[in-house]
Amino acid sequence: MRVALVGTGTIAGIHAEALRGLGDRVDLVAGVDVDGTLARSFCRAHGIPYAGTDLADVLDRTRPDLVHVCTPPGAHLEAARTALAYGAHVLVEKPPTLTLRQFAELEAASSHSGRHVAAVFQHRFGSGARRLRALHDAGVLGRPLLAVCHTTWYRSQEYFDVPWRGRWDTEGGGPTMGHGIHQMDLLLAILGEWTQVSAVARRQARDVDTEDLSLAHVSFANGCVASVVNSVLSPREQSYLRFDFAKATIELTHLYGYGEDAWRVTPVPGHEEEVLSAWHGGERGVPSGHKAQFAAVLDALTSGGRPPVTLAEARRTMRLVAAIYASAFTGRPIGAADLGPGSDFYERMQGAGPPWRIVARQEVA
């Protein structure tokens, strides 16, 4: 599979190393960045033969089968459209787009081109998450009752001094959109469709346009309820998911990726043998990470299938992000039906703007 990387920053380096780890399944043919010096340096470092600054020109010259979009979020849609127009499949980093409207445009471009677009949500692909999903689907754990999904990270003010960070127009949101989205996607991969969200969001400590924390109560179609927290103000950093089923509690504690030792299983008394034998007997040994997802993407494309995570699945996650903002900024519960075309939060994640922006305008007036 001939692969090109668009954007040559930190995340592109992670992509390149993961792709190299797949051996002769991948031929890295090009690296593209608006900064030619960065593009050339990146390609030398990773043994990539062609570096360029104009995506269309690079695609015309190298004709990759698959393009990884690793640019800042505000450039995702245009890069994906260009790659699709040149006949390549696309794997796009999170968040796939800045808004739900842009997401619909990405879906339309994929459909028109006949090529696939998948979103990078690598936490789905560790063997622990795959095992949990399999046990849940098989009914081994019983009905899901309660879940916790907390992304409590720390980012200093200096982190946001990068011009595109902390802005609605270039990043699409704060930690709800750009940090906790990975944990929320895994939550949804296990529990399925959400039905209603009640949330708050605050700009507590960072000098940014977006929120720096959010808290939400999420209801699911299967009757489960979840607590969801996203923060960049937490000195003791942690990514924590907990699923309380009728027969067991399953916990995952990690930071940016997990292995087998990050999971903890606590069966309900009387169900120890049933739960633990199923847990220990399932798929094992694959840590979460880009390599695991990239392997699954290659498997799907080489067999003529649709690569994971599909746009339909990613849309559910994007809508949850939009619902948290919509509930926080309108002060009312939000369902998926509230986020269609015509909604302020379909057009922009912040809708008409967060409360702190309104206060600032009033003070200026």
Could you explain how this protein is built, in words?
Helix content is 39%, strand content 23%. The chain starts with a strand and ends with a helix. It is of the alpha/beta class and 365 residues long. Strands 8-9-10-7-11-12-13 form a seven-stranded mixed β-sheet. A hairpin with a 2-residue loop joins strand 11 and strand 12. It has two domains: 2-119, NAD(P)-binding Rossmann-like Domain (Rossmann fold), CATH 3.40.50; 123-286, Dihydrodipicolinate Reductase, domain 2 (2-Layer Sandwich).
- State the distance separating the first and last CA atoms: 57 Å
CATH class of the largest domain: Alpha Beta
The secondary-structure element order is: EHEHEHEHEHEHEHHHEEEEEEHHHHH
- Kindly state the number of beta strands: 13
Fraction in helix? 25-40%
Q: Could you please say which CATH topology of the largest domain applies here?
A: Dihydrodipicolinate Reductase, domain 2
Low-confidence stretches: 360-365
